[in-house]
Every structure is written in C-alpha cells, then in structure tokens.
Write a structure and sequence with these properties.
Keywords: NADP, Oxidoreductase. This protein is an alpha/beta fold. It has ten helices and twelve strands. Helix 1 links the parallel strand 1 and strand 2 (about 40). The longest helix has 21 residues, at about 85-105.
Length: about 290
C-alpha cells in the first residue's frame, strides 16, 4: 500500500505519519493493512498542489492507493486579506488532487472545516445540513469540497473543528504560553464548537480510509464548549495559576467573522465505522499529559 500525504509537516499531516509509524493511536491499533505501507510525505516545497501539471507528474509516478490532503491555508483572518491565495490553496489545490486521484484510481481523503456553516444554529450540524460560510476561509474550503465531490469518485471529506496537536501552533499551546506569561487572560465566550485532538482525528481518518464508505463525514471531539470554557480547561489541566475572564467577539478586532455556533454531530461516523472520538476534556487531558 502506498500513501501520499500533503501538508506533511503541518499539525495533522505530521500526526498521521506518527500514528502510521507506531501502528497505533491513543484510541487503539490501526488496521494491519497499514503495517507495510509506503509513506510519501510532501509539503509545499516538495509538491505545489496548486500546480495541476506538477501534481500529475509527481503523483502519477508514485501511483499511491491513498492520498490524504492535509494542505490548507488555515489562517482565517489572513484569508480575508489574501483571498486569491486562499482559494488557490483551499479550492484549486483540492481540485487538482481530486483530478489526479481519479486518473490513477486512488482514494482521496480531504480535510475540511466547521466554518463551512453559517453558525446561526443551536444544535450540532449534521452532514446533510445546508452550508453557508461567512468567511473567505469557509468559502474557499467549501469550494474545495465541491471540487472533490465533482472530480473524484472515491473520496472521504472529513470536516473537523478547533484542531490541536503536537506540531505547529494551535489554541492549546497559545493559551498555555500566554497563561504562564501573563497570569490573566480574556477569551471569547460567544462562540461554541468542538475541540478536536489531532490524534483522535487521525485514528478515524485511517479507519474510514480502508473502507468504501465514501462521502462526507463530521469528525470532532465529543461534546461542545465555548473558547472561554476551552481556555479554562486548558489552564486547569496544565496546573497554571491564571485567571480566565469571558469577553464577547465584539471586543476583538478581527478581519474575519466567525460562526457563533459551529458544533458538529458525527452522525455518519456513527452509522458507518463507528464514532470513537473521545470527550473533548478527556482528550485534552491526554494531550497535556503528553506535552
């Protein structure tokens, strides 16, 4: 089995490689089909997914059985300022991988986001709910989803949210650093979603990828909270002496609008391979214990 990973140096890509090398995640063992898998790890300096000809040349030579696309432009505020670049990476890049995966008859896993939803709901979004993104980031990711569905016949689109892992920057690391340095934090309390540990997401990516259960999935940590709740838990489980106070989004000067409510329901996981995503607090404790 050959697996090609884009965005391999990022938070999710590096975690996928780590789990593949170990043969297990915190949740449990991964399928034995991965035991002898050849991993082809690419980042932007090795493979420009926005260049269709380069994608064809590189990927057709390897002929992977599975492509996992972790490459994305994820800085939500910067996407508002660099709209063309956001669509180039998040939309055209996804399209190119879908086109080539179809040519070589490969499965394609594409990672998407809760930001494809408007965020005016009060109960977790399911896979069939109508999308209506309010930011350039969300719009570029939604167009990427559309291209994957249009050009690939063997795709898994996994929408996730509030992701954190060992590599790169994320909310958990930011809060820990700020809490130690400042001793007092102000965090928004009017945006709700699902914190997701990269290790748990990886386990489910690899579980679904060996099946033919193609389609769109939501894959987030179990349970929901606000960023304020999340920050308080991070400080608590890190045993840092720090006060966390709630504020509203209006107090922050941000270029991009965020969905006020973007919690996702892992309905399709439950109805196919099973939903073993851990409670967000349990997963957070595990992550903090590792770091």
């Amino acid at each position: 089995m050959k697996i090609l990973i884009t965005g391999a140096k990022g938070q999710l890509g590096s975690q996928i490689i780590n789990v593949l090398n170990k043969g297990t995640s915190d949740i449990g063992k991964i399928d034995s089909i991965y035991d002898k898998a050849e991993i082809f790890a690419f980042d932007v300096e090795d493979l420009d997914i926005t260049n269709l000809n380069q994608c064809k040349t590189v990927i057709k030579e390897i002929k992977p059985n599975l492509i996992i696309n972790c490459a994305a432009y994820t800085n939500v505020d910067s996407c508002e300022k660099e709209q063309d670049l956001a669509f180039k990476i998040n939309s055209i890049g996804a399209r190119n991988l879908a086109i080539v995966s179809e040519i070589i008859d490969s499965k394609l896993v594409h990672i998407s986001t809760d930001y494809v939803f408007e965020g005016n709901g009060t109960s977790p979004y399911r896979e069939y709910d109508i999308t209506n993104p309010v930011s350039v980031y969300g719009k570029s990711k939604l167009l990427g989803e559309s291209y994957v569905r249009e050009f690939s016949s063997k795709y898994f689109i996994l929408r996730t949210s509030w992701l954190y892992g060992f590599n790169g920057n994320n909310f958990v690391k930011t809060i820990i650093k700020a809490a130690k340095e400042k001793g007092q934090l102000k965090v928004v309390n009017d945006q709700r979603g699902n914190p997701t540990y990269a290790e748990d997401l990886v386990h489910h990516i690899l579980a679904v990828a060996v099946t033919q259960e193609y389609g769109i999935y939501h894959c987030t940590g179990s349970g929901e909270c606000s960023w304020y709740d999340f920050a308080k838990a991070i400080v608590k489980y890190s045993n840092i002496n720090c006060t966390v106070d709630p504020i509203t989004s209006e107090n922050l000067d941000r270029a991009a609008k965020r969905p006020a409510y973007s919690a996702l329901d892992n309905m399709m996981l439950r109805n196919t391979i099973g939903d073993n995503m851990r409670d967000w607090e349990e997963a957070l404790k595990m992550f903090i214990s590792h770091i």
